[in-house]
Amino acid sequence: EEKKRILIVEDESIIAMSLQTILEMSGYDVCKPLSTGEQALEKVEEERPDLVIMDIVLAGRTNGVEAAKQIRSRYDIPVIFITGFDDEDLLKDAEQVKSSLLLLKPFGPDDIEVAIDSILNGHKSDDR
User: Fold this and answer.
1) Is 4 exposed, middle or buried (0-12, 13-18, 19+ CB in 10 A)?
2) What's the maximum distance between 2 C-alpha atoms anywhere in the chain?
3) Is-contact 62 33, C-beta < 8 A?
């Protein structure tokens, strides 16, 4: 089976790098992490990853929820949101995005693995 490609969009580089390491050790093909919603939209256009893991609060003008809505509507790619912020409005917005999951920081490798399995398997079954 082909390796699943994952795009990480996270403006805290330490978190982005640790996520990348965890994912690569789990056998995923990981695109170089990005830090803004605008970059994410460009990269998704080029790379068409299987999954995007994205912080809700990002550098740049487009937050993660906005970027995810565009990614979902244009490319139908599932998104896992990660956030350390307990901002009710943003979290509510994030929950409106179809085929998305929310992981609260701090999370461990197992949390990520479970989230990825559930969203990729869930996303496949949506299409049937």
Assistant:
1) middle
2) 39
3) no
62 in Cβ contact with 41 (< 8 Å): yes
Q: How far apart are CA 61 and CA 80, in angstroms?
A: 20
- Any idea of the CA torsion for 73, 122, 33, 43, to the nearest 10 degrees? -30
Between CA 35 and CA 64 the distance in angstroms is: 10
Q: What pLDDT does 124 receive?
A: 61
Cα 17 to Cα 117: distance, rounded to the nearest angstrom? 21
**pLDDT tens per residue, range 97-115:** 888 888 988 888 999 999 9
- In one letter, which amino acid is 87? D
pLDDT at position 127, please? 45
